[in-house]
Amino acid sequence: IVPVLLGAGESLFGDVNLSALGYGVEDVTQSESGVVHVRIAPTT
User: Fold this and answer.
1) Domain limits of the chain?
2) How much is the pTM?
3) CA gap 36, 3 in Å, rounded
């Protein structure tokens, strides 16, 4: 499981259903250390 760093600074795991939390993924990048950064935005 890859930890996902959200735009709000919160850390969640990749299996969390973002749509259930009212968020959608805008962009996904991966740093050299292998950490996946996901930029999210509210869908409402």
Assistant:
1) 3-42
2) 0.40
3) 7
- Structure tokens that stand for 39 in this block: 């930029």
CA 1 to chain centre: 13
d(CA 13, CA 21): 13
What would the pLDDT profile of 1-44 be if each residue is shown by its tens digit?
455 555 554 555 555 666 777 777 788 888 888 877 777 778 77
Burial class (CB in 10 A: 0-12, 13-18, 19+), 4: buried
Instruction: Calculate the alpha carbon distances from 32 to 2, 18, 24, 29, 39 in Å.
Output: 14, 24, 24, 10, 17
Antiparallel, parallel or unpaired: β 3-5 and 36-42: parallel
